[in-house]
Amino acid sequence: MKSTDSGKTNNNKGGRSAARESALTELFVNSLKDINWAEKQLVKSLKKMAKAATSDQLRAAFEEHATQTEGHVERLAEVFTSLGKRPTSKKCDAMEGLISEAEELIEETEEGTEVRDAALIAAAQKVEHYEIATYGTLRTLAGTLNLNEAKRLLEQTLEEEKQADVLLTEIAVNYVNEEAAQE
Questions:
Q1: Domain containing residue 123: CATH number
Q2: pLDDT value at 62 more than 70
Q3: Which of 43, 62, 68, 146 has minimal CB crowding within 10 Å?
């Protein structure tokens, strides 16, 4: 069992050491860099997915989300600015893998089929779930660090990611999956 200095507390908010807070801030900023890279790559990927989509509805959803994702990149720049930092990126291995998987699904499915659309939706929802988890975590960290502007901006993006996921589910359930089952 570790002893503590009599003047320090380890587990309450008021007694958090500067080093610990700094480490949490560093984690937060590194995570921002990671998702910034991910969002920039996703803009390109969504445009490819839109071109590969069979249904006009899915194509439009991907195109709309690509535009929205460009806004996410801009919003992340605002988060960095609110921290007094320059917006930077670091490679996100998770997003790289998800994008690679989406590209493989395009190659492995027949062009012009609803099966391809079902595969594209599955790939896109994996991305959305990753983003929802990331933005949810970042929003929570921003709250813990009392970064209210960052928290507000991240919450806005989180809600948009959730809406994109719901839209993809609606397209799958109301059209694509039934059509794919008939092919």
A1: 1.20.1260.10
A2: yes
A3: 146
